[in-house]
Amino acid sequence: MNYNLNSLPAGESRSSTWSGVKSLLKLVEQERKTLIIALCAVLLNAFLNLLGPFLIGHTIDKYILTKQYHGVLVFSGILLAMYVTAFVSSYFQTKLMGGLGQRIIFELRNSIFNKIQQLPLAFFNENKAGDLISRVNNDTDKLSQFFSQALMQFISNIVIMTGAGIFLVVINPELGLAALVPAAFILIFTKVVSPWIKKKNALNLKSTGAMSAEIQESLNNFKVIIAFNRRDYFRQRFHQANQDNYKTAIGAGLANNIFLPVFGFFSSIAQLTVLSFGVYLITKGYFTIGLLVSYLSYATNFYNPLRQLAALWTSFQLALAGWDRISQILSLNNNLVTIGYDDTVNPTNAVLEFRNVHFGYPGGYEILHNISFAMEQGKTYALVGPTGGGKTTTASLMARLYDPLEGTILLKGKDIRTYSPEERAEKIGFILQEPFLFTGTVRENILYSNALYRKFSNEQFIKVLQEAKLEGLLNTFDKGLDTEILSGGDSLSIGQKQLIAFMRAVLRKPELLILDEATANIDTITEQLLGQILSNLPKETTLVVIAHRLNTIENADEIFFINSGEVTRAGSFKEAVDRLMHGKRLS
Ligand SMILES: Nc1ncnc2c1ncn2[C@@H]1O[C@H](COP(=O)(O)OP(=O)(O)O)[C@@H](O)[C@H]1O
Ligand SMILES: [Mg+2]
């Protein structure tokens, strides 16, 4: 599955307007009741709006021209009552739809976020956090705006327009048709330019995402930026992103506003036609003044909504472009599915086995070529080799952060894909090369994904740590378990972070514990402490250690060399040293 959200060319509308509308409507299925009530309010409003001009024309012809002012008063009263009712119904409709828009944004943000949480690592490798944030924040907002403001106005305008159009034709077919001809031009124009407008808006949303990604990257890397005094570099990149955004925004703005003058022009033409043709008809005696006033009013009632529809159409196109970007995320699936038991593979006794495994990162070269090895329960294995050789990649496959392109990985004799994510997480502990911590306390971070001890008091929990011989590691934190970790671990050294990750993994007593250079940033004394803790683990625990220092791999039962995507068994430490002496260098 292609997880790169931006690999689709910008603005290539994957869906037509109509299928976009259909999928948008699915979003509001549960809101049917609100929609129906709001719709009734809108229809009432539209009906009152349409009735107005008719009554005015009637008043002019029947009462004003005949000077029956009593009737004028009565009709003025009726009109006032109508306008007040229209105002109230419009208020309720706005209130209902505003709430609906907010509920939609709430639900959408939830479902995007949940979806993102289910996606595999490959998705996060291929997309920038800033762009994802922009999709969750900005694009959903475009949709909410559409639902809270535009949708009902859209319907209301269409109803008023259709009603006015019918009145125009019914009152006088010839004059009506003459009044409606300019609208046909507008429709054709709209049809022609809509894809272009949508494309411009999609480009704009994309560049907003890119700018957000740029900001996020420089905020994440501010230490490097300041240390290397390369503010200019990021300033320049930001400037570029900002400029792109500015340009696409201008493009989108122009596209969005192109309707207004065109609509205005055709609407004026229509008014002019009605006026001149109408006056001509009056002189011929086919038409009354009151009728002409109503008529002009209906022409306005036809063209004004049309002009507003132009603006709403823009909001609609924007919502569609945002929806495209959102549904791109929602349509992704985790390709690391759990499969049923696969009995084509012969089970083995090995705790972990690679069989003819090939692997490459999405869109990249093959990194691991035809790898086969087995690891036995209770033993310690060391993976060594030059930087970039594929150690972390091999370890990631062991924990099923990715699936191999070819070949099988067996965990305890069963295809690793047959384990549910929970089972896998329980069996495998993985201490990443760059541990990730959350803002919170040391205790909260150690107990992340560990429900067993979460309810323990600090004293009880320290006892647990003592039993696991982990307590000594807490000395590095000035307030012990309650030490606050700020901004995702920035307040700690990498070594300290690794210690927390270490405690987190060891406390869960996994059957397979993978340490990816977990001791690289830890002093030798603490490292000895870690060594003791590891030797204190249950005998059945299988350890996979990726390390550079010789003393860490000295105790390994077996060493694997990983270089250029090949994994070679190097036997015990002594045999490995012999190999090393013959020209192979540990990096
Ligand atoms: N997320 C990734 N996407 C694409 N390529 C990657 C990714 N991670 C690592 N690589 C590439 O895979 C190769 C092996 O990397 P890695 O397994 O991290 O090596 P090691 O841990 O031995 O230093 C390198 O060429 C690296 O550039
Ligand atoms: Mg590595």
Automatic annotation (TrEMBL):
Chief localization: membrane
InterPro entries associated with the record: AAA+_ATPase (IPR003593), ABC1_TM_dom (IPR011527), ABC1_TM_sf (IPR036640), ABC_transporter-like_ATP-bd (IPR003439), P-loop_NTPase (IPR027417), Type_1_exporter (IPR039421)
Record's keyword terms, sorted: ATP-binding, Membrane, Nucleotide-binding, Transmembrane, Transmembrane helix
GO (cellular component) term, any one: plasma membrane
Transmembrane residue ranges: 35-56, 68-92, 150-171, 177-197, 258-280, 286-303
Membrane topology: Multi-pass membrane protein
Name under which the protein is recorded: ATP-binding cassette subfamily B protein
Compartments it resides in: Cell membrane
One term of GO molecular function: ABC-type oligopeptide transporter activity
Stored CDD domains: ABC_6TM_Tm288_like (cd18547)
Stretches assigned to the ABC transporter domain: 352-586
Domain ABC transmembrane type-1: from-to ranges: 36-318
